[in-house]
């Protein structure tokens, strides 16, 4: 195999009298070899191993929790858990089918409340000049709400909905959860809309489209993957909230519908509250059911995220 020096000499011999055009001229290849004897290389390798070790150490709690859920909750999984009602104390068997339906109903109502408000507000923030005071106040308020304690959202919904309507309900729970979802949807949607090149909207307007048409047919479809990602993150947070639902939806041992009609203005069961109630009971059946409910909740959130990622990829490819 020819060495760089041999290649350089062959070039010089091929073109006599020409200047040296070899880019490797004067390069000492021995100095470019990786060697742990050099301080910079040694420090780089050591820090790489330290970062890898710290990453694995940080993953231990996550995988330990997942293992506990699979080990303790997986043993109790059965069809009866999804089709039966929660058992009373000292009763064996039972399930939490009503809690799954209640969680789905509450989260779906919260999405219907928070997504339109969040996306419309994100459009206002993205299309408004940076010096607009109202936009800055709204953006600052949204950032503050991202760290808003969930129990305060429950207290607010309790005073605004529960006391006003005279009872706990799925609607009240959805209002509390939507307050927690709104800032996440708003900020992620704003970032997604800002990432759309301005030339796309300008081209649509130049072709005769109105501002509304350019927004609905060009801007929002292009930013849809980012908006959907924010919605999925908000849904994942909403599905695991417990404190707001204790103040608003409370709990119920019955199905959330009666004669095929949803009872949205009645106390509604949810997986998070069921886990909270059953995990503190001195009965083995209820504790095992709490572990199974926790596993089901994790799987529901995981499936929701996978569906969102699939829809985002299809939208990008199309």
- Runs with pLDDT <50, length 5+? 4-15
CATH class of the largest domain: Mainly Alpha
Oligomer: single chain
Strand content: under 5%
Helix content: over 70%
Q: Order of strands across the widest beta sheet?
A: 1-2
Indicate the structural class. mainly alpha
Overall shape:
globular
What is the CATH architecture term of the largest domain?
Answer: Orthogonal Bundle
State the end-to-end CA separation.
49 Å
Compressed to H and E, one letter per element, the order equals HHHHHHHHHHEEHH
What does this entry show, briefly?
The protein has twelve helices and two strands. With 318 residues, it is mostly helical. A hairpin with a 2-residue loop joins strand 1 (257-258) and strand 2 (261-262).
Can you give a write-up of this model?
With 318 residues, the protein is mainly α. It has twelve helices and two strands. It has two domains: 20-70; 75-317, MetI-like (MetI-like fold, Orthogonal Bundle). 71% of the residues lie in helices and 1% in strands. The protein has a two-stranded antiparallel ribbon with strand order 1-2. A hairpin with a 2-residue loop joins strand 1 (257-258) and strand 2 (261-262). Helix 4 runs antiparallel to helix 9 (211-239), helix 5 (133-146) packs across helix 7 (170-194) and helix 6 (150-165) crosses helix 7. Residues 4-15 have low confidence and may be disordered.
List the helices and strands and how they pair.
Layout: H1 4-14, H2 39-74, H3 79-83, H4 97-127, H5 133-146, H6 150-165, H7 170-194, H8 198-206, H9 211-239, H10 243-248, E1 257-258, E2 261-262, H11 271-279, H12 284-317
Antiparallel strand pairs: 1-2
